[in-house]
Amino acid sequence: MLIHPEPTSLAAIATTAGPVVLVSGKVLEGLLTYDFSLEPQPQLAESWSATEDGKKYVFKLRKGVKWHDGKDFTSDDVAYSIMLLKEIHPHGRGIFSTVQEVRTPDPHTAEIILSAPAPFLLHSLAGSESPMVPKHIYADKRFDTNPANIAPIGTGPFRFKEWARGSHIIYERNADYWDKPKPYVDRLVVRFFPDAGGRVAAIETGNIDLAPMTPVSVNELNRLRALPNIRFETNGYQYFNYFARLEFNLERDQLREPKVRQAIAHAIDREAILRLAWFGYGKMMDGPISSTLARFHTDEVSTYAFDPKKAEQLLDEAGYKRGQDGVRFRMNIEYIPNALGDTYRRTAEIIKQYLANVGIELTIRSSDFSAYLKRVYTDRDFDMMINNMASMFDPTIGLQRLYWSKNIKRGVPFSNGAAYSNPEVDMIFEKAATEGDAAKRRELFVRFQQIITRDLPDLTLMELQHVTIYNPKIKNHTITADGVNGNLADMYIDTK
Q1: CA 410 to CA 265: how far, in whole Å?
Q2: Residue 199: pLDDT above 80?
Q3: Do residues 388 and 244 touch, judged by C-beta distance below 8 A?
């Protein structure tokens, strides 16, 4: 399996970083998993129930499950893991914010007690989101220096064997796995190729069997798709729901003016960006909630058709007339660097051309990932940025961080980078976080989408269509909503 870039840790207990999540789930599992419709399915928990007031969840755990060091998996591990996630995990702080305690009436029962309902909690318990860790390994050691972060001990189908930095990770079959006769694969080798050309070559020559999260430039995809030894899978991303967006720094004078943001929206042909920069690997999307999340998504939002004349009119009305050189004002634009870096760069170049047509001159700035995070989220030295975010399985988990005024935090990556503040949006998120009535919760998020598309702290560019590239002899790698991020217990190699 190929992933890019190399992870910084092998246990996703304190991070949502994509490479870490991809490898963590092979060792560390969750209480539940989810089908493609995001309906919960058993994993370490065999069954579950909730009280009518939504303040207590009871999980019945599997018997006979053992950690890789031979100790029993019990409700004490669940209680410790959930309270640890609440303390240190970026999403866990929100998911488990109302958790008062986790009771353990017996080794195979865990009762989560809440101070207020958490309607998203039952969808938050995948291993890729809320991994269970062994209490006896973590409780007596500092978390950030725990050796298990780089040599994890879990309940999963694969045991960690070695990590050769810059080259590979090796996992071997867990012969004592609780779901026998799984897993069907004896060894899983995770490879790293920092060079984009090296990733393409490894896939093309068959040296890689499985490559999730579109690890190559999208302009290579159509050529790879035509090869007889390669297949594409677009399922397995429903748990994350990625979208690309153009985010505005609302602390800039020009961008603080709504008509300027509306003008920029009208000046950009988003369908052309999808076609020219993304080669069609995406779907048009007008607001921040993916159509995959049908229980929250609405089409009844403000839209901004490609209309350069309208854009010019709005800029004039905002008081930004063209100068003698034809330029109204100058700004910079950043783009997030990752495996699709050239795709985001091409997106920036196309946006630069469209905005030049209406008198806005952009300078494209690029940097490595750490410098990008510092410039944008710590120094706030940016005007506009192109990034991708995950709206996740629930807006409270994926989107509140981006639009809640209390999440305007310098130095916190993937927070409210726009510095957007709207008391009604704050109220919506705060109410939705504990609203147990599904219809009322939908109404709140419909209103949220309408406000965001009116206020335009960002412009949604498209819903991303990530692909998993694989050799057709590799079967059952994508059977859950988190796809290859899952444990791969069901994966097998067709030797026929």
Answers
A1: 27
A2: yes
A3: yes
